[in-house]
Amino acid sequence: EEGDETTADALKSQLKVASRSRDGLAAEYVNIEAELKQVELTPEREALIKRTVRAVRARIDKPTFEQKRELFDLFNLLAHYRADETGRWVDVTCELTAGEVFALPLS
Question: Which residues lie below 8 Å from residue 93, measured CB to CB, with a gap of 6+?
Fold first, then answer.
């Protein structure tokens, strides 16, 4: 009987963790979806994305550290860590964001 209660308590605890994780992911999905809707895809930006994807695909198979660094440079990827009362964040910009900053939450 006591073993059953211990198992049940452990399962309840795991379910709570999984539920919180699912809720966090759902909220993150909603935020990302809203950000994507705000991005205007002009023909120039679309062409830039296609050129960049071709360049990345040419280098993507098991990249070395140096190749990863090259890709970051190709994208002009910049990331800035910050922490505030709402949580921990990485603000990211790159060539494809046209100067827009995307705030990505860290769990």
Answer: 76, 77, 78, 99, 100, 101, 102
User: What φ, ψ does residue 60 adopt, rounded to 5°?
Assistant: -80, -20
Maximum pairwise Cα distance, the chain: 67
Tell me which amino acid residue 31 is.
N
Closest CA to 51 of 74, 35, 79: 74
Burial of 61 (0-12, 13-18, 19+ CB in 10 A): exposed
Q: What is the pLDDT of residues 17-60, one digit of tens each?
A: 778 878 777 887 787 777 777 767 778 877 887 887 787 777 67
Phi, psi (deg, nearest 5) at residue 97:
-90, 0
What is the C-alpha to C-alpha distance for residues 72 and 56, in angstroms, rounded to an integer? Answer: 10
Tokens of 29: 């999905």
pTM of the model as a whole: 0.39
Structure tokens at 63: 């990249």
Count CB atoms within 10 A of the CB of residue 93.
Answer: 17
